[in-house]
Amino acid sequence: MKGRRRDLTENEIGQRLRESRAVLSAHFNSYPLMTPQDAVKLLYQSEFGCGHFAPSPERARQMLERECEGLEGDENHIRIEPIGGGFSRVHLEPLVGNRPALDALADAFVRSAEQPCGSMEGFGIRLDALKSMAQSAEAPFSAQELEEFLAVYEKLGCPAVHHSEAYRKSYHPAYRVVKTELAEEKAHPFE
Predict the structure, then answer these.
(1) At what angle do helices 143-155 and 120-135 cross, to 10 degrees?
(2) What is the DSSP letter of 177?
(3) What are the backbone angles phi and psi of residue 36, rounded to the nearest 5°?
(4) Following DSSP, what letter does each residue of 46-111 receive, concatenated?
């Protein structure tokens, strides 16, 4: 894998492995139809956040408004879901029709995207945690399915990916990845 290189300390490696296993386990329990693609997306977001997509503040608001037009509001839907690496997914369903909350989320999203983070080395460590879980049957897919996905994925250079079709059909994901500290700072409008 290529990318920015900085050797991680043993402590950082151990922390990423533990955190990734905990996040993956929680998501496998919440989303049992996850595929290797969805797990890799989760780990990519955990390592790199939303930095692969940094719109202007106005564009971020427009995109949120457009996406919310197709959603039904759900006050009981989870609002903030930690994904590791100092990031969380802020779900849109509870925010439908709440302009101040959407404005706060757009601001948090843009501010999060402006902060560079992550490394390919760190992402590789997160993928090692995923491989270990698949090999020990702790994932909702086999180690072979993961290996097949990763063989193609790594040849493509490990890009950001979308959720799988199965995940989209089953869970209808609608969220923004933001720094957890910003999600917590802006939490009042999200509630």
Answers:
(1) 160
(2) E
(3) -55, -40
(4) HHHTTTT----HHHHHHHHHHHHHT----TTS--EEEEETTEEEEESGGGTT-HHHHHHHHHHHHH
| Cβ-contact 140, 34 below 8 angstroms | yes
The predicted pLDDT at position 191 comes to 57
Q: What CA dihedral angle connects 125, 83, 24 and 28, to 10 degrees?
A: -160
- How many angstroms from the chain centroid is the CA of residue 162? 10
First and final CA of the chain: distance in angstroms?
Answer: 40
Residue among 153, 158, 160, 127 at smallest CA distance from 53: 160
pLDDT the model gives residue 115: 82
Cβ-based burial of 4 (10 A; exposed 0-12, middle 13-18, buried ≥19)? exposed
8 A C-beta contact, residue 60 and residue 106: yes
Query: What are the 10-residue block averages of pLDDT along the chain, 191 residues in total?
Result: 62 94 98 98 95 77 91 90 96 92 91 88 96 98 98 96 97 95 74 57
Name residue 58's amino acid.
E
